[in-house]
Structure formats: structure tokens, C-alpha cells
Amino acid sequence: MTHIFGNTASLAKTQRSLGPEVFEYPLLPAQLHGCIQSATPDIQYPLEVDYDYAAVRQATFRRGSNWSNWEELLPPRHPKVNMPVGNTPLVDVSALAPAHAARRVLVKDESRNPTWSHKDRLNTFTVSAALYENAQTIIVASSGNHGVSAAAMASRAGLSCIVLTMPEVSEAFRDMILGYGAYPIYLSADDRWPAMRQLQELPGFYPVSNLTKTHTGHPWGPEGYKTIAYEILAELDGEIPAAVVVPTGYGEMLYGIYKGFTEVQRLGHINRIPQLVSVEPAARGPLYHALKAGRAAVTVAAGPTVQSGTATTVNGYRSVVAIRESRGIAMVVTDEAARAAHRAMAQQGLWQEISSSAALAALNMVERFENDGPIVLMGCSTGLKEPTKPAQAHAIAPDIASLRAYLKTEFGFEF
Amino acid sequence: MTHIFGNTASLAKTQRSLGPEVFEYPLLPAQLHGCIQSATPDIQYPLEVDYDYAAVRQATFRRGSNWSNWEELLPPRHPKVNMPVGNTPLVDVSALAPAHAARRVLVKDESRNPTWSHKDRLNTFTVSAALYENAQTIIVASSGNHGVSAAAMASRAGLSCIVLTMPEVSEAFRDMILGYGAYPIYLSADDRWPAMRQLQELPGFYPVSNLTKTHTGHPWGPEGYKTIAYEILAELDGEIPAAVVVPTGYGEMLYGIYKGFTEVQRLGHINRIPQLVSVEPAARGPLYHALKAGRAAVTVAAGPTVQSGTATTVNGYRSVVAIRESRGIAMVVTDEAARAAHRAMAQQGLWQEISSSAALAALNMVERFENDGPIVLMGCSTGLKEPTKPAQAHAIAPDIASLRAYLKTEFGFEF
């Protein structure tokens, strides 16, 4: 079905399951329920995109290379998804890492993206897939970076966007969602999934967030995060980091970065990959607990935490693979330590989300890494998005008639 | 006095007045009261930095060139001011400019800077000057982008920073100022200047915002904005825009962009410069009125406007020069038109300050430009900074004893 992609250089060929047994699917339609052939009630394995690596000709990773050099290794990007994304700088914060005094410590500042977070990399490809599948309306369940990024990318591509969020969503996020011309629906946590399930069955409606019990997400999404690995290698001009420290929710970014490095190794440009370090709130930390228990995914209680960007109660299997295969390290960070790191980062001119700054706290708890080289901390989003006050909107009932009436009355959006 | 600058490639040699009669000063100390030799009670002329242009050897402006190629043409950058700044992308919004359907219209997205506005370019050099002059504490009068940028740059360089702001400052800006570890002082509009004058006399205290009746500002500041012109030429790979449309307060950015293009022309890399278009709120617009009256600077009434980023009551003389010498156009935009442009921009995925979006509204009111070529609109800052609620702090009395007591009690900052 390559013809629908125009004259892209992409060598993407199939969707492939990440589970112990490999199943393959065509590149589209995106398998939004994970690998259905291997799914059980307890575990759904995510899918990733496979490429014709033997045919790669253009890809380079030295200083000055950029997204235009990496098209072969990415899913096809729809021409309407033409917002410049990525190309974010590394900011030196070595002064903040006394436990690793001999190394350079660098923050990859993802707040320099179009909607000021890493999520724009993911939505570049989820929205591309939506356009190739002739979607009309993007649906995203998020009270954070993912929702506003999807809203912006969808709007620019001429798609409608519904963001299923919570009455407690911060004013900052609500204002952004409305700003981009998307439609927020305020639902209680219990009501979001019933609403998502009903909406995604409507013709032309296309979810870009997760639909399964354990996280599988959109198979094209994590591919966008591979560019982080490529950009790091380009900026370091081939020097390989000892580790990349990644604030981790469902692990799409963690896996994407891991995969990017493995691809560059496979293509012969580097001879090892960095250790991946995941960072979760101590009050939750499903990945930490899954790895400890030797399981593919676990569900944890929704303990209170200020690290809202990574406050998930279930891990994605992708993150298990990334930590295991990179001989990585799973860390958890208390809110107190995250807040202290947040203050320290700000005094280096980096005002980040608290959950992002937790990467620094985690780094200072790691005793050693296997290799020499700099450490890269992922700085995911701006502190401007940290909640001050909730938007205090009312919750909507999740049945389709109520949703329809609300969207029509509030925004004039009819379907 | 070149020795204090280390092994910089900078060819900066003097400060030079912009007034009709040229006066020169050493490169430092920065003349913070403008050109004192030509000042009258009515007009103070700003200073700019002059260079040894005949000695320029490295500067290139083709695709892929960046700040490392332009050190000769910038003031010396202090090694402690090492935050990556600039390198912001051009985002296509041609669909939004029906009045110029044959042209590409591009937004230079300055929200991709470290504190999410263009001001980081200015403060890269004001804070450098402060360090070379052995300052200990930066003082900045601002309730907006300039204040938070100065706070971040100062903090990273190990300097203290006091931000003279207003009780009505938005929560977003207050949180940023505090986040970076700077000290906000909430003063009424009438009290800010007395407070500034008293503080700047203290040893080690260094103002990076204006001290004169008509705006002169810090002579090194606008030099940072020249990089916008250089970056535009690099990204367009030598193509010359027909115009650059610039939301204008005191005109430091307007002048910096104008100067950058003239330098590249002087060095023989381009054969003309773009027309500069200034954009001010219709309720104020001192530059518009100064040009109409043929005057160097005028003061206008503080008419109400939502375009807070450009809501000045006096123009800088720099902006008069930039418009006059580029055969440019001075535009004013109503709040209604600015809001409509703000919504239109957001639906292209660019959620900006309202005052930035006004550039689009202005463009659609211009009938023609002198030359072919794309149009660049300056997108100055993120919509995340638009005020939702005021921080509602109380105002402080502007005498030095009260200021001292407040800073000590509130922040433990003693001087």
C-alpha cells in the first residue's frame, strides 16, 4: 500500500509486535489495540514499525545531520504535518551532578518544541497515520502534554480534535486546548474510558492515545522519539552517551530513544548503545515494580504525587524491553527529591516540569554506569505548564448523547 | 580593554550613538543612560555597538551556518552565558495571508528559546556585559518576557536578580521569576522608576532595562537580535525576504533585525535588505505617531490594550531609524484584529502571545511590498504566558529601606 504515501523516502514496511512471539501486520491501518493475535486479558503487547534496514542509503548521524537525513528510518510523514519539530539543544548542567563529577551532564531541552514538550515528536507520526487513514477527528485522552500537542498538530493538519480531560485539568492546559481550537471534554477518571470507547467507534474518529488495559498506544508514535537518539548523536558528533535518563510514564519515549540507538548501531555507525535509565514517581512506579517482579506489566495504586507528567498506574511493555535490552536501570524518585531537583535545574536557567527535573534526582542516586561518556537527561516540558489552579470545569456524562449535545452546544461541533 | 574578554573572536570595538551627531564611547562600561554627550531633557539617543567590519573573516550566512559562525559580529559573550539560544525555525503560515497569496509567509517561532521568548537573545549580551563589569546583581524592570529571561540568564551565570514588577503581574510570570530563583518586587507603575534609580546606585547592582525617559536600554542588548536576521538568511539559504514584520515595543528587536541585514549587505553577501514593518497596538503606537510627526520619540497615553507585549507609551529612537532606513512601514493593530489573528495562528499550531499574532493582522493590511520574496512574521513568545489571573501580590513602597527589608524577609536576600 506504499502508493498512498506519495514520494516519501520512508523504508517503513510493517507493524510488528514486541511480545515474545513476533506477529506482523501491514503498516496501516494502525493496530490501535496492540497485537491482537497474542493478546490475553492480562497483557496486550505493543507494536512497533519495522523497516527495510538493508535498503538504507542516506542516513547519517554526524554533526549537522537532521530530520531530512533520517526519512528512511521514520514512518511516512504526511505533507500536511509540516510543523518543524525537534532539533532541540543539549544544555550543560554538569555543575548539578556531583555524584558524576568527571562527566558532562546535558539536558536535552524538549521544551523547545512547537507545543513545548517532547510529545510533538510522537504526534508528528500519529497525526500522519490519521491522515493516511482518512480520519476527520482526532480523539486523545490526556490532561497534559499529549493532549495539547495532538490538538496543535491536528488543527494545523485541518482535523478536528477532541481532548478527553478531567475537571481538574490546569488552566494552562485548558487554555492551550481551547487556543488550538480543539474541544475539551471534562470527564471523571472512571468515565474517560467509556467515552473514548464510544467515540472511537464513530466513523472518521481516530484515537491517538491508548485503548488497551496495559499500555500499547499508537504503533507509529514511539517512532518519533527515535529522532531524540539521532539528534543526540548528531550534536555529540558521534560521541556515545554513557546513559540517557528518561522520565517515564508509559515508556513510549524511553523505548523510542532505545530503538533509535539500536538502529544506528545496526547500521554500523556506533559500536554500543547508552544505558537507558527510567525515572518514575516513588508513589507509583509501575515499570520499577514490573521489572522487580519479572513481569511484562503491572498495575499499581494511584498514590499521590506532584510528578504529574509520569504519574501512570500501569507500565507499557515497551519500557520493560528498553531497560532490559540496554542493561538499563529503573529508578523511582520521591516528590521531595523531584522538587529539589526542579529548583536546582531552574537555577541553571531550565524551568521544567517537576516530573522532568526528577531525572536529575535519579542521576544523583545512580552509583555508576558501564561506560565512559556524557549523560543526557531528558527535559520533557516547560514549568509554565505546571498546574497552578484547576480549570474547575464541570464533569460531563460519558454517554454518546450527552457528549454529542455538549460538543454541539459548547463549540458548535456536530457529528 | 580587549584583554578582559578572553579569546573571543568578537570584533566589537566601541559604543556609538545613533543620534544625528555621532559620539563614540569605549565598548565598556555600558552607557546605560544613552548618549550623555547629546542628551537633552526631551531626547536621549541610544547607543549601539560598532565593529571592525574590515577585519571580518569567518562570517557566513548560507544554510547550516549558526551562532558559531557569527562571533566576529557580536559583542563578546561571557563564558558563563552558555545557554543555547536562538536557532528557531520558520513555520509556514501562507494559508493565513490571503492579501499576499503569491508569497510564502513564515513565522519565526521565538517561543523555541530557553525562556520561550526572543528576549533570551538580548539578555545573552546584557548579562555578558554585566559579568565583564563585575556585577553581582541584575536589576530589571519588567512584568513580561524581559524579566523572566533576565532572571534565567542571571541565575545560570551565578548572579542574583531583582525583577521590578507590578502587583498585577500574571501568575505565569510570577511563577517563572520565582522558579529561576529571582526576587520579584511588586511596585505600582509610578514607584518602579524611583525604585530602579535607587537600586542601580548600589555597588554591584546592574540594570539590564531602560533608565532614560525616551528608551535607550542597554547598548549590547539589540546586538543579540541581529542573529534573527542572520538565522533567517541561513534558513532561506540566501533568499532575501521582502519584509520582516515585527511586534514592536521599544524597538530593540526591530532595530537589531534591521542592523543584522545591513551588516550582511555591507559584507557583500546580499544586495538589498528587507523592508521592516513595525506592529503596535492601535490604542498606543508611539512609534507610529513619532514617524507621522517626524519626531525622534513621542509619548502617548496609556490606552487600554490586550497586546501587553508591545504596550509601551514611548518609542525608542532605534525603531525610527529601522523603519526610515529600510523604507519600512509602521502599522497599528486593534485588539479585535489582534485577537482574530491570535485564533487564526493557533489553528496553524502556533499558540502565541496576542501581541505577537498582531503581526499577521498587520501583514494583511499592507497592500504591497517593494520586492519579491517571502515575508517573515516575528512570533515572539508563547501563549502560555498570556495572563489568566493576576498574581494579586501587594505593592511594596519604593524607598530603599523598605526594599531592603522586603528582600531580606521574603527571600533572605541581603545587600
Automatic annotation (TrEMBL), chains A, B:
Keywords in alphabetical order = Lyase, Pyridoxal phosphate
Q: Which Pfam families match?
A: PALP (PF00291)
Which of the seven top EC classes does this enzyme belong to? lyase
**Protein known as:** Threonine synthase
Cofactor names from the entry are: pyridoxal 5'-phosphate
Under Gene Ontology molecular function, one entry of this record is: threonine synthase activity
Give the domain of life. Bacteria
| Residues annotated as domain Tryptophan synthase beta chain-like PALP | 83-378
Q: Which Enzyme Commission numbers does its entry carry?
A: 4.2.3.1
Q: Which InterPro entries match?
A: Cys_Synth/Cystath_Beta-Synth, TrpB-like_PALP, TrpB-like_PALP_sf
Species: Aquamicrobium terrae
